[in-house]
Amino acid sequence: MPPPDLAQIERLLYDEADCLDRADLDSWFELYTEDSDYWMPVSPDQNDPHRHISLFYDNRLMMEIRRRNFGHEYAASMEYPIRCSHIISNIRIVSADDNSSECRVTSNFQAIVYYKDQNVYAGKYTHDLVCRGGTYRIKHKRVDLINCDAEQGNLVIYL
């Protein structure tokens, strides 16, 4: 089997950023596998989301709940407009299994989120991807903020 397709992986990560920039959590949610999770550790060296506190650790069910609540007319997240701009760079395949159906990808990111106030986030993404039928989907996403151990405001949308 050929090695992972970096161009296709880059498109997936750019599509994810575009969905978040447009606050389209319905389309964003479709980029994830049925057994996916999304993790934002609270310390730079944290290696376990189950035995330590995290900024958040969402499984697929929690992602679905947040997605549905986000667009609801009575949700606090709809009180003000949300505008985002994500920049992704330095995308690298750091590991791949022998048959190239799964791989781990890292990248750097910066995200500006405007919701009442403007906030700047930066750090490193780690995506575990699965390729089925020639299409990559996200099985696990880890967001390591460079200031993860600092006080954080209200995160109204995924980074």
Class, according to the CATH hierarchy?
Alpha Beta
| DSSP helix fraction | 10-25%
Average pLDDT for all residues: 89
- Quaternary structure annotation: single chain
CATH architecture field? Roll
- What is the strand tally? 6
CATH domain fold name: Nuclear Transport Factor 2, Chain: A
Q: How many domains?
A: 1
Low-confidence stretches: none
The spatial strand order of the largest sheet comes to 2-1-6-5-4-3
Give the overall shape: globular
Q: Any idea what the radius of gyration is? A: 16 Å
Number of helices: 3
Structural class: alpha+beta
Largest sheet report = 6 strands, mixed
The span between the termini is: 33 Å
Tell me the fraction of residues in β-strands, as a range: 35-45%
What is the string of helix and strand elements?
HHEEHEEEE
Word description of this protein:
The protein is built from three helices and six strands. Strand 3 (83-96) and strand 4 (102-115) form a beta hairpin. The longest helix has 16 residues, at 6-21. Helix content is 20%, strand content 45%. Strands 2-1-6-5-4-3 form a six-stranded mixed sheet. With 159 residues, the chain is an alpha+beta fold. The protein has a single domain (6-145), classed as Nuclear Transport Factor 2, Chain: A. It starts with 5 loop residues before the first helix and ends in a 14-residue tail after the last strand. The protein has helices spanning 6-21, 25-29, 60-70, and strands at 32-41, 54-59, 83-96, 102-115, 117-132, 135-145.
